Write the structure tokens for this entry.
Amino acid sequence: MIFFFSATGNSQYAAQRVAAATGDSVVSIGVAMKDRHFAFDVTEDERIGFVVPTFAWTLPGVVASFINKLELTGYRDKYVYAIFTCGESCGGGPAAIRELLGRKGIGFSGGFELVTIDNFIVWSTIPSEEEVSRKLKAADVILDEIIKSVCAKKSGIISGEYKNLYMPFECFSSSDGTSKLIVSDDCVGCGLCVMMCPTGAIKMNEEEGPYWDGECSLCLACLHRCPVSAIDYGTDTVGKRRWKYPGLIPQTINKY
Ligand SMILES: Cc1cc2nc3c(=O)[nH]c(=O)nc-3n(C[C@H](O)[C@H](O)[C@H](O)COP(=O)(O)O)c2cc1C
């Protein structure tokens, strides 16, 4: 079984590629969180994988929250691995997930780093089409190697120490002005941002459009996936290209 979290598709793509090679089923952490579905039986499974993005050199808060709630049965003596997709480096991610899983009595065999497109456009920018294509090809070569290791149940890298176990949620509220996520008049009210938000932090007001109220993991799914680029993070993302992994149907495949 492969648990994946993905805002812009990098981790979903990797999860699907691994699943195609191992025959494992794929579970979207985003969908499971929204459905409050945390019980999974992995008795029949040979491998348990977590394919997730790196946030602030560690685990996204939403993934840590899911792992804390996870009720796994049949996990003993299983090969348990994680793949961290990232723009530059997965930092202490593998050490953090080893610690979180260890607290639940789940052993960890190792983590792998997959450098791909950096979707944190608050600090960076999406490169040109040519550069994107070059980076995706390079990532595919690494992913092929990771898949071989996962199929052979090899230990990955559990490098270093984590500084933070996970990147915490931000408590956002449009009404009291604490949300840096804002919507422009270009919004067409399609509701995709509400659907994609893994923590249910976005609500829809029929007249004024989407607003934020609750715990936000800052995954940026709303910002990148808005069909008219109406969502920005303050002024930091204005005019910047958005990213979603090409050709993927978001999040909902093989739910459980
Ligand atoms: C809030 C946030 C923090 C991030 N922090 C890091 C980081 O510390 N190091 C890094 O290399 N990439 C970082 N990234 C980039 C993502 O890890 C990377 O683009 C990832 O592949 C996105 O996966 P997804 O497309 O499955 O959502 C960050 C992205 C976000 C949204």
